[in-house]
Amino acid sequence: MIRLIAALFVSLVLSAATAAAQDKYPSRAVKVIVPYAPGGATDIVARIVGDEFQKITGQPFVVLNKPGAFGMLAIDEMVKAAPDGYTLMIGNVSTNAITPIIYAKKMSADYAKSVVAVTNLVDIPAFLMVTTANDFPVKSVPELIAYAKKNPGKIRYGTVGIGSYPHYDMAYFAKRAGDLDLVGLPNKNGAAGVIQDMLRGDVQTAFLNVASTAGQVQAGNFRPLAVVNHARLKEYPNIPTMAEVGYADVGTVAWNGLFAPAATPKPVLEALFTAVNKALSSPEGVEKLNKQNFNVVPNKSLADAKTWLDGEMKHWQTITTAVKIDVTQ
Fold first, then answer.
1. Cα 57 to chain center, whole Å?
2. Is the pLDDT of residue 17 over 50?
3. pLDDT of residue 30
4. Which domain holds residue 54?
5. How far is CA 51 from CA 48, 62, 87, 282, in A?
6. Residue range 146-172: average pLDDT?
7. 156 neighbors 185 (Cβ within 8 angstroms)
8. What is the pTM for the complete model shown?
9. Residue 111 falls within a domain, yes or no?
10. pLDDT-based confidence at residue 78 (cuts at 50, 70, 90)
11. 178: CATH
């Protein structure tokens, strides 16, 4: 009987300690894994959010860059970590929606059961654009389609990698526009490499984010035909949306989201959600993100975040089924 009482006492003490630790979250540095090298959009978002998170909580938000394997290395490290809110991941549509679908057999864990969305953070408008190199004449989406039909196999498009969302976007556009014969040219150096390909005229068209191409547009090197966004951009009022040109379901407003191991206690997730939303709404955080042409789009709750991610997974199941891309590595 004494042993039973002692065991119950210990259990109550441990439960109280656990609850207290959760109430005080975060009480130490939070490690956030980014599945890309420093300097890209996902890394920039992580560091801006991290700066504001530290101001709000008083705890460091340590960014660990772990690129490679289409995000699988980063996901694997996160899901194997203790589910205590101190090892998280900021990923994007490629790593946290497409990879779990097209590389499901290569992943070390069941993504749906191992990963939970804490909140969406930002989304990033993109252009469907063409180069002006070599006097490429196309000036609108209808002209691009007409040119492709008259010149099958002659238009090359840039992608940041086989199976990336810009690859699927262009392949899906080609399918929807009448099974256009376009040739994909992946670049292992990511968006920076695609931009160089377009400047040389090695590729004629691509989906590229607005932030990374604004300078080339202003210089007249690239010509945006349509914007992938919820509405026209105030900086480019004459550029129609993909919906306006008849392709509302084509193109990705690429997002960055915050993820945690699925077994993370609900109180910790709630505290994390609250702190990150404060970071996203802080005046300095909003200013920094807006300067990058990022839309700040946090979810309304943890339940809303789950609904959002479920919707993204369903959308990409549709796209990856409609468009067959050989991603065999």
1. 25
2. no
3. 98
4. 27-123+254-322
5. 5, 10, 17, 11
6. 94
7. yes
8. 0.82
9. yes
10. very high
11. 3.40.190.10
